[in-house]
Amino acid sequence: MSIYSKKKYSKSKRSIQGSKAISAKKRRSSSIQEILPLPWSYWPSEARLLITLIAFWSVAGLLILGSASWWAASREMGDGAYYIKKQMIWLIASWGLLWIAISNNLRVWLKLAGPFLLVGLIMLLMTNQFGITINGSTRWLNIGPIQLQSSELIKPFIILQSANLFSNWARITADQKIFWLSIFGSILFLILLQPNLSTAALTGIIIWIIALSSGMRMRNLFGTALTGILLGATSILLKDYQRSRVISFLDPWQDPQNTGFQLIQSLLAIGSGGWLGTGYGLSTQKLQYLPFRSSDFIYSVFAEEFGFIGCLMMLLFLLLIAFLGLRVALRCKGNQSKLVAIGATTILVGQSIMNIAVASGLMPTTGLPLPMISYGGSSLISSLLTGGLLIRCSLESTGILTEVNSNKLNIKYG
């Protein structure tokens, strides 16, 4: 074979290999596009940013949990990665639910909200009767080997059913209004009985904000807010567990070895972080000093390791989530999707702010997890499902998706 023929042969071989590589890339790209509810190029900028930020949030949360829990897991479980491994299982399951949320029409979720809310009410009843009591509060229900927190799992469906109810407030009968308001009231009452004032307050705030956003009269909303405040104050007066927490919040140094111990250790952790923090994994307060370092007070460990700058970045991150959620709500074409977007944003950002406020001594000590960061499967499932609903609202705001049936969606061109 001549030199010219050899060159021609090698060029043709390279071109064939190149075309095979391109076709393989196209096949991979098409397979990815098939599992997306909408081609990536059609996703609005808010949806792209939200799914990217939520992915970063959940992965960063796993790393923060690893730092906060490694030392305790090594001593208690004999495996430093014990809590990370369990959280990774929940994270995979939660991302599966997020994908289901963004792949199905919002109308399907709104139809399922009522039945799921009633199931959640039954789970709360079972929790109060047969649940596990930890630190004076009965919030967890064992179903086989799985431990669930019903008050966390119910939150996405509170958002959906609130949107269902208040978007159709003028068109539904009085009996329907009374029925669903009674269900909401029963849920809040059962959560208060655990006792879990913070979750009850957050749930009530979500319902109230969705009602406000739907255009209900301020006079009715003011009366509802006043009733909620009175119920919360009554619960604090009647429950020694809650009353001691409020007293310790006002002056934790009055009883530094008992009721004020947790808040004092949290403040010491935050103060020790300084401007830039001690560095990842180098917190000293997590070494048997700070209680609940992997769950309710994980922010204190983060603040010690990443300092004021890290805390500021976290607040800016939450501000960006709030801004994107507001943009999604403003772009939604239907009242129901608008209210779902508002509720989802409120719960993701509002719960995070409340957790930070508790760890910083700006609110009484409560058992409210930091979304996607604190250890716990129920909170992770609830947070990522809520995030999925927010992304779905953004996708539907484009007007490109059109419903073919309850589970199958086509793309409308032209």
Average pLDDT, all residues = 85
Q: How many distinct helices? A: 14
Oligomer: single chain
Strand order, biggest sheet?
1-2-3
Shape descriptor reads globular
Helical content class: 55-70%
Structural class: mainly alpha
Written description of the protein model:
The protein has 414 residues and is mainly α. The chain contains 14 helices and five strands. It is globular and about 55 Å long.
Strand and helix map with partners:
Elements: H1 3-35, H2 45-76, H3 82-103, H4 106-130, E1 132-134, E2 137-143, E3 146-148, H5 150-153, H6 155-167, H7 174-193, H8 197-213, H9 218-238, H10 240-250, H11 261-272, H12 298-331, H13 335-359, H14 377-396, E4 401-403, E5 409-411
Antiparallel strand pairs: 1-2, 2-3, 4-5
Helix pairs in contact: 2-3, 2-12, 2-14, 3-14, 4-6, 4-7, 6-8, 6-13, 7-8, 8-9, 8-13, 9-10, 11-12, 12-13, 12-14, 13-14
Brief rundown of the structure:
The protein is mainly alpha-helical and 414 residues long.
